[in-house]
């Protein structure tokens, strides 16, 4: 079956995007890849492309067209192709995707930016972005630095709002999904948007990391709580 529809997930790190991709890929109708435009690697299904990073960066459209052609051969039942791209990845690719109306747009963001910030810092410190090695994660704590948190939140808000504003200005439909939706396996609305049938097997194949209470992830939890209160973000704290 040929690919009839394609979509891109605009997101950032630590939003549950790996879980979302693995869930969508479980559908017989969807072929979904990970970070195709990661600066150092092409995270796609094995055998779908022989393109180099240089070729990918030079012509993102040709790279994606090649992937879509091979995806239909790799998964004959798939009629929808998608992948995720971070707000900070390849500018040329993002501009092409935003301007090409044939790509359905999905925006994934995490509602609790404190949890996202902590998860990002832990992953960066351990250099483990997609493992479920709880033994490693359970000893990982970070020091909360208010200025770093504020900058992190400002960047996230800007990236999401810029993408959303462009789509609104160009009158393009888009679908928004949150981390909580992924956690709860609430995929039916997204499936309807992608024009596929939701199935019972669309639970994430990837486990959640950093399940501990907020205070147990921080060296200085009292500093974090006080700073959140001054910003009116006390509701983000989870005991």
Automatic annotation (TrEMBL):
Gene3D superfamilies: P-loop containing nucleotide triphosphate hydrolases. One of its GO terms (molecular function) is transferase activity. InterPro entries: P-loop_NTPase. Keywords: Transferase. This is LPS sulfotransferase NodH. It comes from Hydrocarboniphaga daqingensis. The lineage of its organism: Bacteria, Pseudomonadati, Pseudomonadota, Gammaproteobacteria, Nevskiales.
């Amino acid at each position: 079956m040929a690919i009839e529809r394609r979509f891109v997930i605009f997101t950032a790190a630590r939003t549950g995007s790996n879980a979302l991709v693995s869930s969508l890929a479980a559908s017989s109708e969807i072929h979904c890849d990970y970070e195709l435009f990661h600066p150092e690697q092409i995270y796609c299904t094995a055998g779908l492309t022989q393109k180099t990073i240089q070729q990918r960066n030079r012509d993102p459209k040709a790279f994606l067209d090649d992937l879509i052609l091979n995806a239909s051969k790799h998964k004959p039942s798939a009629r929808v192709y998608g992948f995720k791209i971070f707000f900070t990845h390849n500018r040329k690719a993002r501009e092409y995707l935003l301007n090409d109306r044939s790509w359905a747009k999905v925006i994934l963001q995490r509602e609790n930016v404190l949890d996202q910030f902590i998860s990002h810092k832990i992953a960066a410190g351990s250099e483990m972005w997609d493992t479920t090695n709880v033994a490693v994660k359970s000893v990982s704590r970070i020091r909360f630095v208010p200025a770093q948190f504020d900058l992190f939140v400002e960047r996230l808000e800007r990236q999401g709002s810029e993408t959303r504003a462009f789509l609104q200005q160009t009158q393009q439909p888009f679908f928004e999904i949150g981390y909580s939706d992924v956690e709860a396996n609430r995929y039916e609305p997204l499936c309807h948007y992608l024009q596929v049938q939701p199935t019972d097997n669309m639970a994430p194949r990837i486990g959640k990391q950093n399940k501990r209470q907020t205070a147990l992830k921080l060296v200085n939890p009292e500093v974090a709580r006080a700073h959140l209160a001054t910003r009116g973000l006390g509701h983000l704290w989870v005991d």
